[in-house]
Design a protein that fits this description.
It is a single chain. The protein is mostly helical. The chain is 49% helix and 9% strand. A three-stranded antiparallel beta sheet has the order 2-1-3, sandwiched between helices. Strand 1 and strand 2 form a beta hairpin. Helix 2 packs antiparallel against helix 4. It starts with a helix and ends with a helix.
Length: 231
Amino acid sequence: MNKKLLALLVSLLVICSIFNSFALTPKFTPIEPKELNYTYGSLEPYIDKETMIIHHNKHYKTYVEKLNATLEKYLELYNCTVYDLLTNLDSLPKEAVQSVKNNGGGVYNHEFFFDIMTQKKTIPSARLEEAINKTFGSLDNFKEEFKKASLNVFGSGWAWLVSDQGGNLSIITTANQDSPITLGFNPIIGIDLWEHAYYLRYQNNRSNYIDNWFHVINWDKALINYTNPLK
């Protein structure tokens, strides 16, 4: 075999090796932002259209973008769902934990929040209301306790109705974009208490925002969350 042919074969082997290494490397597929199940103005007069546009198109989508920027750096995270990430923070690369907690929490919490609202008039199902009555005494008592917890959130955060593994209900709050699923709870309903969620309509009157938010809760979705924990 002459030297030219040998050199050609070696070159081909190198090219094939490089090609195969790229072919075997998983391609990063970014998380796509979810669209709303209703129009931006559907929740008027309780949640105004401009707030919903900014909330969904700016704040939520920024969390999606920042989470994607983090995940793209770590091959081992390419196939993980947001739920997987937030329920396994201790197993993530150390450098990725805080970004996933903040931005992954921002994605999960906002998607949950948008899905738990509706323009339709809904009421708690008999099954969910029975569970609420068992824990809080009545639906009205639950609303009072939920509002109290929401008002006591200092700065930015969330209030949640959650269940534990035994199906027991409780109200918890989380700071910033911390998520109840990281704590082992299943969220049933949740309210965004960051000012960007209500300031245009309510300014600093968080109390009125909470009262009006009860009008747009999707209790049908809440029942699904209660009986079929989200993943």
